[in-house]
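Subject: for your reference before the review

Hello V.,

The reviewers asked for a structural picture of the protein, and I figured it would be easier to keep everything in one thread rather than splitting it across files. Below is the amino acid sequence we used in the manuscript, unchanged from the supplementary table.
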Amino acid sequence: MRPTHFPNRRRYLTIAAGCCALIFGLHPTLLGADAREDMDWNRAQQLLHKSKAGERLSPEDQAYLDLAKSARQEGRQKGKGGKDAALWDDDPSPMWQVAADRIKRSGVTPPQVEAVWLKQARIAPARFGEFPQPNEEMNGHLVKILQIARQRYPNLRITYLSTRIYAGYALTGLNPEPYAYENGFAIRDLILRQIKGDPALNCDPAKGVMRAPLLLWGPNLWADGVTPRQSDGLVWKVDDFVEQDRTHPSVTSGRKKVAVLLLNFFKTDPTAKGWFVR
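And here is what came back from the structure prediction:
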């Protein structure tokens, strides 16, 4: 039996939240999935009319409507495909310039950014040795990324960290199993380091210079292939991934699953729903 990534998750949230509790009274800008350019606004408008008329929407239609609503808010994508953690851990770098350009185009300024959703990995993690060495190597980059984010966005209060999706169908060594699964332990270790008072991840002004935002679990995207996840029945089928590498989520179903997981998290998590749901 595989150990869980999330022992006493509620306790971790409670302990960690204590150092920056004021964030919950603010209105963060989410840097997450940006669907504005790909959104079918006619479909979204039709779904909105149906919803207001009391018509029950299918789960897929409801997710699409939710995505459209969130896309009209201030959320903007900071991610860039194929650019792993090592390419984000230096500033200046092209990756951070991409983030700056996208934020600027959206009409948002760096001081307005108060929340970040972050999912990262390393290309070809097998080269770093056996577990937990790949995680330790990646977390070295993540600490730098979080510190840079805190410097670039002076009001950044909170970062939600998510796991990789399933990679059991992978056709390449890009980031296959078990590294995708073990990615969750890297996140756990990073959060625990902050809870235990690592100065490099300090988010409490009473304890010195704030070098990082508060770190919390974001949505867990991993499930064991076609074995339904106990908490919500999530499965990952081979068709949920693009044919070229069976690693990246497919347009037809994989991306939708990720979008629904993200939306459900931000609409229901106690630390997010107050500012995400408007």
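For the response letter, the relevant points are probably these. The chain has eight helices and four strands. Residues 1-38, 73-80 have pLDDT under 50 and may be disordered.

Happy to draft the paragraph if you're swamped.

O.
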